[in-house]
Amino acid sequence: MQKVMSVLSGNKVNIPPVWMMRQAGRHLPEYLRVRKTTNNFIDFCFNSQKATEVTLQPIDRYDMDAAILFADILLVPIALGRTVSFEKGIGPILDPLSVNDIRNFQINTDTLEPVYETVREVRKKLHNNKTLIGFCGGPWTVATYMLEGKGTPNKEKAKIFAYKNEEAINDLLDYLVHISSEYLIKQAEAGADVLQIFESWASDLSPYLFNKLIIEPTKKIIKHVRDAGITVPIIGFPKNCGLSIKEYVKSSGISAIAVSTEVPLDQIRSFIPRNMAIQGNLDPLALRIGGKTLKNQVQNILDKANGPHIFNLGHGVTPDVKIENIKAVISHIRTGEGNYV
């Protein structure tokens, strides 16, 4: 059995499996070479041949235990007829939604077909002992970009919209639940072994909004996926959500919980199901710093995981991370020794 799948089945293993969010990305020279051959980031994501190649690059270089589909959470708004672009130094740019826009989405889920082709191609080329992870963005996280028009520090505009436009936010989330569910179902049908829901903007929400914007849409997605006969594990990642993580684990229907950097691993075990796998929570900053700082942080996580655990970061690999640092982490996990510099 694949190591990741074994852990997600509730097994504690002596050497935890490892993969890293954003492991296919700008810290790799081979990724940058492929990126230069594309017109823009959206075209890159929808080019199955190139997306397959970069999905597999971290497997080839690091022998990660899992590959995660190379795509982006903001492909879903494109299926709702919205225009998405990425500007260097700024990030994603969208036309901010109005209430009227939500009533008049032009839905075309066929737009996402190239992603499923990428999944099929990766699964064909990936060794059977490696796990392929598909994903979507959580409905609220995707909604924040659609409402704000770009990434913002506190998502205040989106939160005000959610408070003041109850019918419209419900409609928007329902659209996103519907398309995200189909997106995950088709990824699983194409060969994804595991699915992950990235709720990257789960922080700084009142309990009322957390339940309405995070837990309820997640529950609906998971129900749709299960009703379609998809049985693969689903990892939930409500980033930086504080104590709300307890209710999320209890009520969302996830199979495993991915945790961000601030979560004490030894404490979270006390309020999740006994054999539920935890994924995370190495500080990405420590991965950038390297040396003794990184070594100590890795060992601390290994000491405190205390149960089924998939080694990962609290968020993603940043472009300035050194390849040698990632290799040292993997060696430390698998052999007890890492060449930290």
Protein architecture, described:
The longest helix has 25 residues, at 166-190. The chain is 49% helix and 11% strand. The model has no long low-confidence stretch (mean pLDDT 97). The chain contains 16 helices and nine strands. The chain is globular and about 60 Å long. The protein is an alpha/beta fold and 341 residues long. The strands form two sheets. It has a seven-stranded parallel beta sheet with strand order 1-4-5-6-7-8-9. Strands 2-3 form a two-stranded antiparallel sheet. It has a single domain (3-335), classed as TIM Barrel (Alpha-Beta Barrel), CATH 3.20.20.210.
> Could you tell me the strand content as a percent range?
5-15%
Share in helix: 40-55%
**What distance separates the N and C termini?**
34 Å
- Tally of individual domains: 1
Largest sheet: 7 strands, parallel
Q: Briefly, what CATH class?
A: Alpha Beta
Structural class computed from helices and strand pairing: alpha/beta
How would you classify the quaternary structure? single chain
Rg from alpha-carbon coordinates: 19 Å
Order of helices and strands: HHHHEHEEHHEHHHEHEHEHEHHEH
Which word captures the global form?
globular
